[in-house]
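Milestone 3.1: sequence recovery, worked example.
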């Protein structure tokens, strides 16, 4: 398995929640990064590999995938609109980060094909005041499952319409290469910090 596959599979194994979202993020980061300490706040994917292509519809009905965001720094993450805990925090963090870095784009892929209806997505985006560059991608389970598989994401329905799923944020460079992986406890300053370091690398 590639280093990317090991990293994402590690998160898939360790970042699955039992209470609807998020997961054991500190343990996941330790398990996939380990020593030596890194100057980056995200886990470095080395060598950088091309982000898997896909095509899903966003909130405006447009087909989009990671391959369509070449020329921009991009974050790919996996969320659901009815999440009671971690997903709103990730969305808010990425929304604030996007306002700090106007060129940053986000593709949030649904892990809840049943609950993430167009109305639910519009409500979620409005409630969290997410910028226009934040695109929420939905589809049927048949459409979403191959994307989950390519990104090593697990998604399992839980009680009370919750979904246990892998929670991470994948930073992709303007050439379409995966560079850094963050866990569900990502902070607003993490991506700007790491982009500044990548610019000097």
């Amino acid at each position: 398995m590639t280093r990317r596959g090991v990293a994402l599979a590690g998160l898939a194994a360790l970042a699955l929640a039992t209470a609807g979202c998020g997961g054991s993020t500190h343990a996941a980061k330790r398990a996939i990064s380990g020593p030596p300490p890194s100057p980056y706040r995200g886990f470095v994917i080395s060598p950088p590999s091309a982000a898997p292509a896909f095509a899903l519809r966003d909130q405006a009905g447009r087909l989009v995938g990671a391959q369509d965001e070449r020329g921009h720094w991009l974050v790919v993450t996996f969320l659901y609109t009815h999440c009671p805990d971690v997903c709103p925090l990730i969305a808010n963090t990425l929304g604030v980060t996007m306002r700090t870095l106007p060129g940053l784009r986000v593709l949030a892929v649904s892990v809840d094909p049943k609950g993430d209806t167009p109305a639910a997505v519009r409500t979620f985006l409005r409630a969290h005041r997410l910028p226009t560059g934040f695109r929420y991608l939905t589809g049927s389970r048949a459409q979403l499952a191959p994307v989950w598989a390519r990104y090593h994401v697990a998604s399992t329905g839980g009680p009370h319409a919750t979904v246990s799923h892998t929670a991470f944020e994948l930073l992709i460079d303007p050439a379409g290469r995966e560079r850094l992986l963050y866990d569900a406890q990502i902070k607003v300053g993490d991506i700007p910090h790491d982009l500044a370091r990548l610019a000097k690398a």
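Residues 11-19, 22-35 have pLDDT under 50 and may be disordered. Residues 88 and 160 are 17 Å apart (CA to CA).
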